[in-house]
Each structure stands twice: as C-alpha cells, then as structure tokens.
Fold this sequence. Notes:
Layout: H1 9-20, E1 24-25, H2 29-40, E2 44-46, E3 52-55, H3 57-74, H4 78-84, E4 92-94, H5 95-103, H6 112-120, E5 124-126, E6 130-135, E7 139-143, E8 148-150, H7 152-158, E9 161-164, H8 165-169, E10 171-176, E11 183-187, H9 190-195, E12 202-206, H10 213-220, E13 227-231, H11 236-249, H12 261-268, E14 270-271, H13 285-288, H14 292-297, E15 299-300, H15 307-317
Amino acid sequence: MDYKELADPATRTLVEALLGSEAITARKRWALLQLSVWQEKGWVESLAAAGSYCITPVGRHYFQHALLELQLHQQPDVELDLQQLALELPPRVHRKVLAAVLRGSRDYRWGDDELATLAAEGTYATLDGLLRIRTQVPFNLFFTQGGLLDAKPQLQLLGEVILPEAALEQLHKVLWTEAPPEQIITVESRAAFVTLQPRAGQLVLLTPPQHTGLAVRFISALTPNFTWCHFGDLHPRALTHQLHLAERLKRPLHLLLPQELPALAARMGKPLPMDTRWRLAEIPTSLQLSLASLIDQQRWLEHEAMTLFVQDQLSALLP
C-alpha cells in the first residue's frame, strides 16, 4: 500500500479503525467501495453482518508499514527549516523553546539521549530553575568571574535568597560572614519550604525531586563541615529519588521525621497501590526501623502532612 493514500484523512481514519478494532461496520458508499478493493487484495475480510469487515494479518502488516512511512515523510526537515530561517541555536536555550522550534510543541518531553546529543552539538537545554535558600546565617556568594554578592540584604528583606540556574553554574564558593550552618536541610515542596522556619545554624534548600541539580551544585560549593538531612514524601518511589540524591551528594541519607510518625501513618497515611510496595531489600537498614509504621501497613505519607509536626524536630537536629 502506498503511504500517499493515507494522506487522505478519511482513508487514514478507516485504516486506524481497522487496526484498533476487531471488526468495523461501514455505512458510507466510499468506505464500502474502499473495503471491497482491500478485500480483493487480501487486506480485509468481510463478516456475516452487512458492511462489517475485519483486518487480516497481511493487511495489518501493510497498513502499519504505510502509517509509519507516512509519519516519516510528514516529519519536518528541522535543519533545513533553521537554515532557511537563518537561525543559529545559541549555547543556552530553555527546553520548551527548543521543543517548540525543533519538535513542534513546547510540551515535547526530551529524552536524556536527545539532551546529550544537543549538548554535544553545542546547545545546552536549560530548565531555568530557581534555587530558593532560607537561613539565619548571612553569607556571600563568590562567582568564577570574580563577582561577589552579599546575600544578607536579601535574607533580611525577603527572608530568602533566590538564585537562577545560570548564576549557580558560575558559583565558585559560599563565604560565611558568621559561623557556618551546622545543618543543611533539603525540602521537596514549596509548601513545606515556606512553612518550615530554620533555626540558628540551619540552612534550608528547596529541592524538587525532578530538579535536584541546583541544590547539589550549591551544596558542592560549601565547606564540608555540616550534616545533611532531607524532608520529603515517605513513599517507595520518593525514597528511590532521595537515595539517588544522597549518592550525588556522597552522603548517607538522613530523613527529617516527626516523633508522631506512627500516629500520622495511621491517621493520614494513604494505602499504596498493589504495583508499588515497600520492600525491605530496597530500604537502607538505617531507615527500616524509622519507617516501620508505614512499611508494616504498606502506606505512604505526604511530607506536607508532616510539616507542622517536624518544626519542633528542627531544634533537636542541632547539638
């Protein structure tokens, strides 16, 4: 079958219906004529009911191949388009802008291999993330080009420091103007981040699970004499991401947990779906006892539900 025949929307709809159903019933004359032609070629078979047809194995092969050919020929020649538009991609472009230009939709989801190919070709696809920092300890940010930013005015006026992704890439070192914080706490959601009130000697970083790189970059610029703990969902998949974050930081995973966890698990815990379970083999031994109330009941807990209960734990974290 020539893929060009499927350029006709009605013909393509008929083919897709045959591929997606065990049988179809046609009413329109053109469809009945078309099915009759395909029957002569052995691509469809007529059924007992008038106007009803089903696809044959040979027809399935031909139709699927024709649809694939059509998709390949309909794909735009992106490189040619860019040349004709005299557009040269800059070194840094937001992923959604690249998706709209190169893939035809801002909602296109990039694969890691595609991003690596773009980077190798000289274009880094950014997320334009923002790192939010809360602390009572004033500090300066020293950048690779020699610039120095005093964060104290932002902390006093706004209660937090906000750093864009591009600035973090240039961050060389964090310089403390007083005793450095003893405790670094990464928090998964904005709701929990703005609710937690860091104590003296603590620094809190907003660290969404899907974009931990900014926090990792900032922490790597700190002097290593601090302890780290994480506050996030207590869920098997969340724990997988948290352990990966610990690997990137090269530190053991410590979770910020409320003393009331067993009661919260019983009252606010949500049942895990059958395809997602707590498995002891996948949980570090150091966390199994702490999470026992959730593991035993195969439940999980949103960290927002724990936020008001861990506030008192922040003081206990400090020596």
